[in-house]
Amino acid sequence: MRRSDGGYVTAEAAVALPALAFFALALIWGLMAASAQIQCVDAARAGARAAARQDPPPAVVEAARSAAPRDAEVAVTREGDMVRVRVEARAAGPGPLAVRLTGEAVALAEETVG
Q1: In the β-sheet with 73-79, what is the strand arrangement from edge to edge?
Q2: Where is pLDDT greater, at 3 or 29?
Q3: What is the DSSP string of 64-89?
Q4: CA 108 to each of CA 17, 26, 81: distance values in angstroms, whole numbers, following the listed order
Q5: I want to staple 75 with a disulfide (CB 3.0 to 4.6 A). Which of 12, 32, 33, 86 is the partner?
Q6: Terminal C-alpha separation, the chain
């Protein structure tokens, strides 16, 4: 009597394909989170530049929000001659993958230069 190996390939594919799909989704989520982190940093820089130019506070927040991910929170503070802009956003994802991303930038107020 001869044994057949025909069912093994099907079983291996049934295990490997979902694992590959999960791995691909994890890579996509990681790229999206990295992109959102870069957007937070860029938004904080834009807000800090606007605050250093002494733009009105609503204009500073709008400058930061224009570059930030959707639904990001923007905080502007002044510490002596320095202005600090902090942008926080949530990376999309289920459960523990919905991490909090933060970007922060500090700039010297132009009124103090020169």
Answers
A1: 73-79, 82-90, 100-108
A2: 29
A3: HHHHSPTT-EEEEEEETTEEEEEEEE
A4: 53, 40, 6
A5: 86
A6: 95
CA distance 77 to 57: 10
In sequence order, the β-bridge partners of residue 85 are: 76, 105
What pTM, to 2 d.p., does this model score? 0.79
What is the tens place of the pLDDT at every residue in 53-91? 999 999 999 999 999 999 999 999 999 999 999 999 998
Query: For residue 61, what is the enclosing H or E element?
Result: helix 57-67
Question: In which element (H, E) is residue 24 found?
Answer: helix 6-52
pLDDT of residue 13: 82
